[in-house]
Structures are given as structure tokens and as C-alpha cells.
């Protein structure tokens, strides 16, 4: 299995991309012989008026990247990220680990307001209307249901603990895929994730939210 695929999905303003960048950095330090790349589903957002649904994204572009042939002696870890990263059945089938970044509606609305630096009532009213008419329905109908496909659910503000478990999970998958016991120093020794025995066949479900 020369390619390891991990998907990171979740709601609006859940710091998915920051988590993925941290994961990429940690994996590059752990596996110097493994190419760790990021495939951002949000970058496939189609042009034109948004529908706030799966129709806004070109999943086939991501699938084509995941199915690109690799040379026999090449190892690659692909981190798929985006709000709809756990939506497409084919991407879910290809992924060895699916992570969902969780947050509640109040937190998402607060983060929306903060990130726009709102300082007047008119702008605040516009943002609330956008949230109620577009973002909230999108979350409820399309994004939040993908949580059911996740192997690992972590709070979006779990700081180092959630990220540590994600990285340890990937490290174990890479080690198991390369065969035999791991000789790689654990990135986060305070977490004995080996004892959790991550099931690569996705028969186990971890909910830390």
C-alpha cells in the first residue's frame, strides 16, 4: 500500500486547514522517506453562484489525484481536507482514516462574526442573515451528516490533544502498511495510542467530542 489517504472534514470555521498543516509537518518529521501532500477540496469550488451544497465542488478532481499511479518504491501520504471531505462515497472508500472536526452552531456563528471583524450593527445583521439562510442549512443538510462516516471525531478546539491522536493514528497506519512493528519514535509519548489499537479496516469508531 504505497499511498496512505487521510480525509479531514468538518463544519465552517473549524480550523481544518490549520490542523492539516500541523499534521503534514509532523508526518514529514516522522517519515523522511514519505512524501506528504495536501489535496484541498475547498480549492475545487466551482465558479458562479453558490448553491451551498455538494454541487459547488468538483470531487472528481480530487478522486483523480488520489488514483494517480505511483512508482513501486514510492510512499506517499495524501491529506484530503475541506468541509465536504467526508461527503463523497468514492473518496471515503479510498481513505484509510477519516477525521471529522466538530463544533457547535453557536461557536461557528461567533467565529464567523469574529473573523469578519464586525464593528457595526448593519454588518452584523448581514452576517447573521447569511448564517441563517445559507451556512446553517448547508451545515445541517450536507456537512454534519458526514460525521457518520468518520473514524475519528475531534473537537475543533481540542488544541494539541486532538491533533496528537490524529498524527499517532496516521503513524500507526503508515507503520502497519510498511509491515512489521514500528521503530519510529512516537511523536507524542504522553498518548499511548498503540494501546487503542486503531482498526485500519474502519470497524472501530472514536468520538472524542
From TrEMBL:
Regions that span the bilayer: none
UniProt xrefs under Pfam families: PRK
- In terms of superkingdom, the source organism counts as Eukaryota
- Gene Ontology molecular function terms on file: ATP binding; kinase activity
Where does the record place the Phosphoribulokinase/uridine kinase domain? 33-158
User: Cross-referenced Gene3D superfamilies, in alphabetical order?
Assistant: P-loop containing nucleotide triphosphate hydrolases
Q: What is this protein called?
A: LADA_0B07228g1_1
Q: State the organism of origin.
A: Lachancea dasiensis
Source lineage: Eukaryota, Fungi, Dikarya, Ascomycota, Saccharomycotina
Amino acid at each position: 500500500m504505497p499511498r496512505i489517504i487521510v480525509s479531514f472534514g468538518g463544519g465552517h470555521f473549524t480550523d481544518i486547514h490549520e490542523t492539516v498543516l500541523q499534521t503534514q509537518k509532523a508526518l514529514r518529521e516522522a517519515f523522511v522517506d514519505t512524501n506528504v501532500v495536501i489535496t484541498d477540496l475547498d480549492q475545487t469550488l466551482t465558479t458562479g453562484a453558490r448553491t451551498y451544497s455538494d454541487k459547488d465542488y468538483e470531487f472528481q478532481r480530487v478522486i483523480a489525484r488520489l488514483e494517480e499511479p505511483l512508482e513501486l518504491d514510492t510512499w506517499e501520504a495524501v491529506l484530503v481536507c475541506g468541509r465536504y471531505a467526508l461527503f463523497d462515497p468514492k473518496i471515503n472508500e479510498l481513505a484509510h482514516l477519516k477525521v471529522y472536526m466538530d463544533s457547535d452552531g453557536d461557536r461557528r456563528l461567533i467565529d464567523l462574526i469574529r473573523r469578519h471583524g464586525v464593528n457595526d450593527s448593519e454588518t452584523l445583521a448581514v452576517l447573521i442573515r447569511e448564517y441563517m439562510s445559507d451556512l446553517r442549512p448547508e451545515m445541517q443538510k450536507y456537512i454534519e451528516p458526514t460525521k457518520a462516516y468518520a473514524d475519528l471525531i475531534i473537537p475543533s478546539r481540542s488544541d494539541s490533544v486532538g491533533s496528537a491522536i490524529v498524527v499517532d493514528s496516521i503513524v500507526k497506519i503508515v507503520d502497519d502498511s510498511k509491515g512489521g512493528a514500528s521503530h519510529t519514535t512516537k511523536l507524542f509519548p504522553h498518548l499511548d495510542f498503540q494501546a487503542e489499537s486503531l482498526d485500519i479496516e474502519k470497524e472501530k469508531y472514536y468520538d472524542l467530542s
